[in-house]
Hints:
By secondary structure, this protein is an alpha/beta fold. It has helices at residues 14-46, 106-115, 142-155, 168-179, 195-207, 213-230, 239-242, 265-274, 292-295, 297-311; strands at residues 62-67, 74-80, 88-93, 119-123, 160-166, 183-189, 251-256, 279-284.
Amino acid sequence: MDTAVRPDARRSPPWVRRWVRFSVAALASALAASLLFPPVCAIFMAYPPAHLLVKTPRLPYENVAFPSLTGGVQLKGWYIPAAGGSDRTVILAHGFLNDRLIHGRGLPLAEALEQRGFNVLLFDLRGHGQSPAVPVTFGAREQGDVAGAVQYARERGAVHVGMLGFSIGAVSAILAASADPGIDAVVADSAFADLHGYLETAVLTRSHLGRSYVGARYAAYSLSWYRLLTGTDERAVRPEAVIARLGPRPVLLIHGAADRVIPVAESRKLLAAAQNPRAELWVVPGGRHTHSYEADPAAYTAKVAGFLDENVR
């Protein structure tokens, strides 16, 4: 009797083959998604969607444009002159995915500052609002945007200049003030201390890889896309390394206790690094990322306007 086994008799059952094919396809899809996710996120970070301005100041204002001191990008904004004239100007710098309206609080804050005798300059950072759609760099080049705003304010007669920045605007204000001893005071709301450390932690947390070998390699891969698309190195954006250069100039750090984007620990690092008896940290109960104003608008306005009125003169 012929006992030879036909080749197809050795094959696995159909359900096993289907399971293997499904598993291989799922694994390949997961790997492809994990490799595609960082460049997609990097593109979104470098080129965020633009917002349309839906309000204009109630106070007399001018539409203005001035060059950034980084690359000469022409930035757009509003200049609100103080009634009766003033040699004091406060510059407001917004955060990521925003514009000069600053989540609707920019104009109320500008009005409160104008009432205290300040000129106010609100403007769109690069890649936001009506300013050119060039890559957003989270402070690397935006510090030049802030420096350009300071230069413009001085051309308009400002002798004393203060800064109020949010998130990347806050970081850019600290970086710009560290290089310009003529900036009298800085208010930094929701700033990070070290861009590389912040982004690396965000990648490791959201990928659920933790601080493992694989996590470290994935974070390095992710950040390489950021460098490629922005042409900058996030490791150079370290406000905690330069904030001490502000010396004894007044610094008000603000952070929401409920901030889940940039934890309040980042502002605590900045306060420690400042080594400045005139630096203070105000932690706002219930405040979310760049939204401490909304937790208590009256208290926020009084705190910020009072601080700048006292120290920008």
